[in-house]
Structure formats: structure tokens, C-alpha cells
Here is the input.
Amino acid sequence: MANREESQMQQAAHVPCRLRRQKSEILRAQYVDVRELRVCAGTWNVGGICPPNDLDIEEWLDIDDEPADIYVLGFQEIIPLEVGYMIGTEDTRPVAVWEHIIHETLNKKCPDKSKSKRHSDSPPPARFNPLDYVLAVENELHNESNSDSDGELHRLHNAESSDSARRRLRPLDLACGVHNYNGDKRKRLQYVRVISKQMVGVFLSVWVQRSLQKHIQNLRVSTVGVGTRGFIGNKGSVSVSMTMHETHFCFVCCHLASGEKNGDELKRNANVEEINRRTVFNPVHTIGVPQRIHDHERITLLGDLNYRLNLSYETTHELISKQDWDGLFKMDQLKKELGKGCTFDGWVEGPITFPPTYKYEFNSEKYVSDATKSGRRTPAWCDRILSYGEGTRLLSYNRAELILSDHRPVTAVYMADVEIVCPRRLQRALTFSNAEAEDHLLSRKEAHLEPKTN
Here is the structure.
């Protein structure tokens, strides 16, 4: 008899777990709210050029429309890709200049819009010291992390749904009070850098609205070199993994193999597959934190992917002169790869309605001259931004007309769903669930103890 009761109790102990598994989705709807986060992703191959410290990048960051909650900015060739740079000590001076420009732009300290844009002037001597900037930003980040005010994400703005957690509501004003949706839309939020990482010429920098910083957890980075000898970082990726509230984000900045010969696209495909295979984020103590790229829920891939057009130089220029972007895009290598569903299975790109981003003469609005066949390059959309996974809605996909390098920068703006746990509702859901489980246990126990009648 004692053994029978003990067996019944052991079986009963597993009932709450089974009930929670069976009703996990119902429970989540009770305590999880879904909001939208505005994410601005940008990529730019800057051709190894250190910019003037007053470079105007507002167009690239798409600030004139509406400030984002997160800025994910990827660079390629942030330093010249010369042998000395690839195998020697990493040169971080250009990184400091670029981060200074980003910081000033996002925190509304950029030059007056009435002043002429400066794309190629040399920085004035003694005006900006990169080392001073690095120290200043580190101090600022430390101070800001200790004084963050509460902030809210945008309410989900999506197609109507019966799920109360996904109801359609207008965006809420952000609690920090520096941006008013009903007032002056040019007021800017205050931003902090949460992580930056350089691998030779590949550089990724992530900035967030200051009040959201405390909601970021599990911040990790992974680098993969696929360049010279298969591992040097002149080509490869820098990836960032982070958890915003309860949603896992991954941002991957790439610079893939170049070349416009037949079959060169296969090298690029191999680069992507190698990056997927070798990108691993160090495990943390929290259970369920992703370690691979595709373990994440919201994934963005950006960079100089280097895919070309399967067209002749002459035909490409003819279609560009007609602004026949659809005609060009039909022959785009990456479009074909996305359609195959192999290397890029599940990845999505927005419609391209802008001219090819490569290859321009430096500091010029003209594509490279065709004076010599050996030196000319057929224009192509080398610079791309892709997304993977549900819960991401593309708002815009454009290029900016900055003429610093031989590439044009590209920007994609998304609204990304973010799950937020409401502690009070969670406690209430668990209380009700436990009560239901106890009732179920009691009824099962009574059924077992009732005498059987013949």
C-alpha cells in the first residue's frame, strides 16, 4: 500500500510540469506583451579612408524621418586592406573617428544643416584627438549606465489580431521625454554605444536609446576570418548577439570575397556558409541563450556582400542610364541565390529601387571610367542588408548619397517585435496555473483512492 501511494505521488509531481508545457502558449499570452522596436541597420564600405570629423551622415542614419531605437552600423575597409594592416597590430584610430561622428550625429551635436557638407576635406589639425574621444565616451557610457531613466518601446503596430497581447495601438511617447510624436519630430533621443568590435577592416557598432540600455542582456560578439589563407580577417564577419527584454537579436556584418568572374559567386556562398558554421557565441549561465546565428529570433545580415550582376559592362551602363532597376535586378547574383533557397534559405531582402552602389570614383558621383578594361568594374549592388525570421517588418531600404569612398552606404529600417514580460501578470498567471494544477492533482488522487466496485 505504501509503495502504491509513493508511486502515485511521484506521478503527481510531474503533473504541474506537463500542464505548463501543454498550456505554455496560453500562459505566455497572459503575461507577455509584444511591442515594436525601430531598428536602423546601415552598411558602408569606406574604402580605407579616415573621414573628416565633421562628416555629415544624417542621411545614412535616416534621422530626418524618425529616430530609431537601435542603430546597427557596419563598416568594411575601415582601414586600408594592406598586408601590414592585416598581419600587424590592428589600427583603431579610424574607428575612434567614426565613433565620434556617430556619437555626435545621434546626440544632435552634428554640424548645422545650413553649413555645406564636407565629404573629403582633411580633419583640421588639433581639432579632434581620437584617443581623447575614446576616453570621453567610455566615461560617458559609465555615467549614463548608472543614471538611465525608464523607457518604453512602441506598442505593436501590426495587422489586427484577436490576441490581446498583439492589439493594434498607437506608438507611446518614450518616457525619457526628449522625443514627442505630437511635437517637433526633429528632437532627438540620447544614444549610447553598447558594443563595438573591429576585425581588421570589418567593424560593427551598435547604439541604443539610452533608456533601453538596461534591458539588454547576454551581450556577446563573435568574429570569423575567411580571407587570405582562409582565416585572415581582411574578409569575414563580426557578429553581435544580444537579448532585448525576452527577444534574442543577432547582427552580422560581413565582407565577402570579391571578383566578377564566372564562378566568383560560389566563393561568396562558401564564405557565408563558413561564417554560419564558425560563428559561435560564448555560452552564458542563463538557460536558453542562443549560441549560433540561426538560434536567434531576429537576425540582420549586412555588409559588402560583393555579389555582382551577370551582365556585360556596356549593358549594365545602358540600363543604369534608363534607370531600369528591375531590368538590372533580374540579373543580380544575390537575387538568384535568395531564390534558390540554399545558402540563403529563409533570408529576405527588401525591393531595390536605387542605383548600384559600386564602383564609383572616389569623391565623385561618377562610376569608374572605362578607359582601360583591366581597371574597370561593372557597377553592382555589392552593399546589401537582409533579415531572417518572423517578427520583422521592413519600413524602408535606401542608399545615401555620400561620396567619401567608391561605395555608397545603404540603410534598412525595420520594426521588430520584442516580447516583454509583465511581472505582475506573470505572477498572476503562475498563481492561477498552480491552483489549476493542484485541483487536477487532487481529483487524480481521489480517483486513485476510491475503492473499485465489481
Remarks:
- The chain has one domain: 33-220+303-447.
- Residues 33-220+303-447 form a domain with the Deoxyribonuclease I; Chain A fold (CATH 3.60.10.10).
